[in-house]
Amino acid sequence: MGCIATARGRIGYLEAGSGDGTPLVFLHGVGSDKSVWRPQLDHFGLTRRAVAFDYPGYGESDLVEDATRDDFAASILAAMSGLGIGQAHVCGLSLGGVVAIAMHAAAPQRCASLVIADSFAVHPDGQGIHDRSVAASHSMTMRALAEARTGVLLGSAATDALRAEVINTMAAIAPAAYRIGAEAVWLADQRDRAATIDVPTLILVGEEDGITPPALSEELSRLVPHARLERIASAGHLANAEQPQAFNRAIEAFLSEQR
């Protein structure tokens, strides 16, 4: 684990691998942090530089009051610059997918390609999910919220060990940061931005995702020009952690067509 000091504050990151190929950047969801990407860092770090970042307020990153999804995107771009990463393949899950779209809108030349997993351009129940999430973060501890949420997050094949890891990770998030993240993800409407994406894009979704169902990824795939959609079997909302081998294979095949 490490931190990079930027003009937008300190940003936490995990890094693996090296090489001359275009780096791969990973962006986590609202109830997680950079550690959720360890299966991907272990895999892709064997062949290229792979970096997972924390958003402001998450993990080892400094909290930025009232940060927006665009602020998250700017912070990740600043951290990339601080690590000498000019351009990267950007992979984001849930909130990470929202931030990836915002990064492309802000600096398309810095996105070699996008992988958007278990995410959306706009969520039909976004306001409701946001309001329930914020209310829960005020009325219960983050551990209790995590324990109540895990059954919805994960699919039928998730192990007890993964469930415990997800609960522990979410329990460590500061409630204020979680509320900022909830607004950034659930109130997003980036349909116009999605339609302007002009880099190769892979859209992944767990077949059992009940939070951002496959229909939302199908809608996103129709919005993003020439996007490719793939479903991950026996996976819920955290497809990368539930079915890491299938998730990694899909990205590996996609990247083999890129630089």
Write structural notes for this entry.
- The model has no long low-confidence stretch (mean pLDDT 97).
- An eight-stranded mixed sheet has the order 1-2-4-3-5-6-7-8, sandwiched between helices.
- Helix 1 packs across helix 11, helix 2 (69-82) crosses helix 3 and helix 5 (142-153) runs antiparallel to helix 6 (160-171).
- Helix 1 (38-44) links the parallel strand 3 (24-27) and strand 4.
- It has eleven helices and eight strands.
- The protein is of the alpha/beta class.
- The longest helix has 14 residues, at 69-82.
Amino- and carboxy-terminal Cα gap: 27 Å
Shape: globular
Derived structural class: alpha/beta
Largest sheet: 8 strands, mixed
Strand order of the largest sheet: 1-2-4-3-5-6-7-8
Model regions low in confidence, pLDDT < 50 over at least 5 residues: none
- Separate helix tally: 11
The overall pLDDT average reads: 97
How many distinct beta strands? Answer: 8
Report the C-alpha radius of gyration, rounded.
Answer: 16 Å
What order do the helices and strands follow? Answer: EEEHEHEHEHHHHHEHEHH
Helical residues, percent: 40-55%
**Portion in beta strands:** 15-25%
